[in-house]
Amino acid sequence: MLKWQTKEGYKKLLKDLVSIPSITHHDGELFMAEHLHHTLSSLDYFTKHPDYVRHHPLPDGRKLITAFVQNDPSIKETIILLSHFDVVSVEDFGEWKHLAFRPEELTEKIMENKELLHTFVQDDLNSGEWLFGRGIMDMKAGVALHMSMIEKATTGHFKGNVLMISVPDEEVHSEGMLAGVSVLRQLQEEYDIKYITCLNGEPSFTKYPGDTSSYMYTGSTGKILPGFLCYGKETHVGEPLAGMNGNVMAAEITRELEWNVDYVEKFREEATPVPTNLIQKDLKDHYSVQIPHAAVTLFNLMLFNRSLSDITDMLIKSAKIAALRLEDRLFERSKNVAEIVPFTPKKESIKVLTFNELYEHAVTKYGQEELDRRENMLQTNNPNADERKLTIQYVFELASLCRDISPMIVLFYTPPFYPAVCSSDHPLIKATSDMVVSHAKNTFNSELVNVHYFSGLSDLSYIGFHGDSRDLSSFTSNFPLLGSRYHIPFDDMRELDIPVINIGPLGKDAHQWTERLEINKVMDETHPLIIFAMETLFDQAKNQI
């Protein structure tokens, strides 16, 4: 008897999944993995094929889950169903934190206090169609839909194989998917199958308050986190013109990059957001009357098609513009002061370099062995440090060793990194997405909008990588923790190189305490639409062979 093909069965499954507080980097992630394994194993197909449902450990002990359904060993074509089961924390729920993972009780509590809500939320609440809860849209609903597809696959419904993979840690560094890439490669060889598409189940995000459209995505936006270590010259506050304040240097770079439209990429009717600052601070760890001669500033930068080498060149150019402005301003201010206090102003020169250039300079001065020792000591003494903080510490230490070339601005990269991926023009995805949009209109009278890039970032980023060696080198050589504390399986990503598509349920207010899901529409429209998409993918894949 099928359990998850009806509204009642799906809703029970979803509430069970939401009830597990699988907050990233908390014990709930482990409980969730066990729960998924146990629940999937209860299907008759997996009692006969128990090895087709598996735990796969991450290096830190967390687990991802795979479930494989193959009804005909002669058929190689396989669709991957990708989801993540971790959720963000619940501090934003305030006094209702204890209800965050109990959807029906939370929805009742919110109804009792609906005067606290924006009218858009009240309208959804009054309709009776929406259920609230942490993770209910992002993305336990997608996990439950994929489990329902696995159950349907066990009946022999699809003309190909289905492999579900559900991972932890999407909300922080995507460590689950970074490990999952090699798992997918391993299973591909073990099962002797051919991946034709990776179908993600991230929810359809509204674009503005009151947006009623549903969206399908045929790609996912990329993201990098570039930083600039600004190392000036120390001086006493009584003689500020004798040094260079790191805070002023960082502020000038932020002024240059913040909202800079030169970094906006366009793809047809879509565009990336302007860069924005995420971290800016000086690196003094105590109060003193010495100026803060070192500071750092980090930026969120979203990507479509621009190469990593082009981005590195652009960032260096921006830093040089900021450096020239700083040099000119300091010289002008010095001349103004010289009219009051007799001294001879001198124009300062600020070097702009990449982390790799700084590193090579440090190797020349101190030797590779000494730099290896310092890096090992830093990582050993800070086993649980935030990756961004640790990166900043390391770049600062190298800059301190190389004071002979200060003042300087050093470009570096820090986790996380999400490559951009887009399959809109892939023949299989283009044909399928066109048919899915038409089917949604003809069957449900629903205006499904095809978006080329999912803007919320997703694990689809790791399904392929197309950068050449030069492009990649300009990035990896300036990424201090890459290969030690942070790993990206570029080779496996290149080998996979699977077209992608994302079809998920309609949700609103992800990562907010009003996170909610239009529960009836999931089974009335999204569930049959995913079935149609999978049927179409298998049919189109055979037609294109």
From TrEMBL:
Transmembrane segments: none
Secretion signal span: none
Stored SUPFAM superfamilies: Zn-dependent exopeptidases
InterPro entries: Peptidase_M20, Peptidase_M20A, Uncharacterised_RocB
Record's protein name: M20/M25/M40 family metallo-hydrolase
